[in-house]
Write a structure and sequence with these properties.
It is a single chain. The chain is an alpha/beta fold. 26% of the residues lie in helices and 21% in strands. It is built from twelve helices and 16 strands. A 14-stranded parallel sheet has the order 1-2-3-4-5-6-8-10-11-12-13-14-15-16, with no helix packed on it. It has a two-stranded parallel ribbon with strand order 7-9. Strand 15, helix 12 and strand 16 form a beta-alpha-beta unit. Helix 7 packs across helix 8. The radius of gyration is 27 Å and the shape is elongated. The N and C termini lie far apart (57 Å).
Length: 424
């Protein structure tokens, strides 16, 4: 007790004592690693003599401007880098970019995050054989110049997540030839092939080919591919798919539609699936005609989210016997022609517990799907109806009255109405 009193007395006598600086270097460097940029980290060097070079042992190098990169790399002491990030505000010459990335690879970097804005950049070969790389993100608004010269050899034994965003069409071969090979275990890919102007002739890729059978998670946002081809995806657990086929040429519509259906077929092992097929009417008609004759069984699927187009809802209900959670997100396309399945799907009789609909109540044929689901979902526990705030009280009352008349197959059901701000 006396020791505690003495300690408290010393604290009162020395109110200006710097307790933070008394912490071990390892803890201080860990604290500094949470600062948003390396520039902020370097700025702490003026705090006290103890802090002068402490920043040089921080494992994260995050650059938001190009004026300090060379100096920081020259003075950085740590032999292992956790994160190396260059924002779109950093400008460089090609040889500088190669030098900086090579520095990170030599220092056993685990995460590389690059945003290349409006320039032609060359990436060093060592990046594609980095034995410590776990996460790699490349956001490119310009052509990646030397992907053709990599030689087709990619060895990233620890890679778990790959994110490619806004890859220039001239670098599109990278997607096909330089993704990690089949032997990579536990690979997770976030693959985005986007373009802001899909109607321009140059803003598409001829084809997208991926062969990664060990894949466990796939996020694909494709606004510009003419043809999709995937190898086996037997290990895939979760997929988030958005395919926009507005860039597809008219004469290639049927081939494209068939490739989309074949791709969906490759997703048959997933447990969680979010799918948004945002295509123009002619393509959707072709996809629908091909999909309707396809025999696909989603035997592992327990959670399904459909967005934009609902004409595939019946097919999924019939094919996913173990479906437990169904989310319909703004599925207004095709809703007027939606047809009930000829027989009540197995999932409705014994599995489906939760249904959530987002903003489908603003459309003419809004109640057809909800009426069918409420009538046939025998073990349904909750239906959540999310509607926009621009629906007035009169519309809401009409909605409640209509739904109160629906026949309900499950006694233990709860119907909840949730309002959201459509401007957010």
């Amino acid at each position: 007790m006396e020791v505690v009193k003495q300690h408290s007395r010393r604290r009162r006598q020395n109110p200006s004592i710097d307790r933070l600086s008394n912490l071990p270097n390892s803890i201080l460097c860990h604290i500094l690693s949470f600062l948003p940029t390396t520039k902020n980290t370097v700025a702490t060097s003026i705090l006290a003599r103890r802090w002068r070079y402490l920043w040089s042992y921080v494992p994260n190098l995050i650059f938001d401007s190009d004026d300090e990169v060379d100096r920081v790399l020259l003075l950085h002491k740590l032999q292992t880098i956790d994160t190396f990030r260059l924002s779109e505000n950093v400008t460089w010459l090609d040889h500088e970019l190669e030098k900086w990335i090579s520095f990170a690879v030599i220092r056993n970097v685990q995460t590389i995050d690059l945003c290349i804005s409006g320039i032609v950049a060359a990436l060093p070969r060592c990046l594609f054989t980095c034995k410590t790389l776990v996460f790699f993100r490349l956001d490119s608004f310009g052509e990646v110049a030397n992907v053709e010269d990599i030689g087709g050899f990619v060895f990233l034994p620890l890679l778990k997540k790959l994110h490619l965003n806004f890859i220039h069409p001239e670098s599109g071969g990278y997607l096909k030839r330089h993704l990690p090979p089949d032997c990579v275990d536990g690979l997770t890919i976030e693959l985005r092939c986007e373009c802001d102007e899909p109607y321009f002739e140059d803003n598409y890729y001829d084809r997208l080919e991926i062969n990664t059978p060990a894949l466990v998670y796939l996020q694909l946002l494709d606004c510009a591919t003419q043809y999709l081809k995937f190898g086996a995806l037997n290990s895939l657990f979760e997929a988030d798919i958005c395919i926009n086929g507005y860039a597809v040429e008219t004469q290639e519509v049927f081939i494209y539609a068939r490739s989309v259906v074949e791709f969906i077929d490759k997703l048959h092992n997933v447990k969680c699936l979010k799918i948004d097929l945002l295509n123009h009417a002619k393509i959707m008609d072709f996809i629908d005609s091909v999909f309707s004759t396809w025999t696909i069984s989603f035997h592992n699927l327990t959670k399904l989210e459909l967005a934009y187009d609902c004409r595939f809802l019946s097919k999924f209900l019939e094919s996913a016997h173990n479906l437990e959670i169904l989310i319909l997100n703004e599925v207004w396309k095709g809703i007027e022609g939606w047809m009930e399945p000829q027989q009540v799907p197995t999932c409705l009789l014994s599995r489906l517990r939760i249904i959530k609909t987002v903003d489908i109540l603003s459309y003419k044929y809004k109640f057809n799907i909800l009426r069918y689901l409420l009538r046939n979902a025998q073990v349904l526990e909750r239906m959540e109806i999310v509607y926009p705030d621009f629906i007035n009280s009169e519309q809401k009352m009409y909605m409640l009255q209509e739904m109160s008349l629906f026949q309900r197959g499950s006694r233990a059901r709860e119907v909840a109405f949730v309002q959201y701000n459509h401007k957010l």
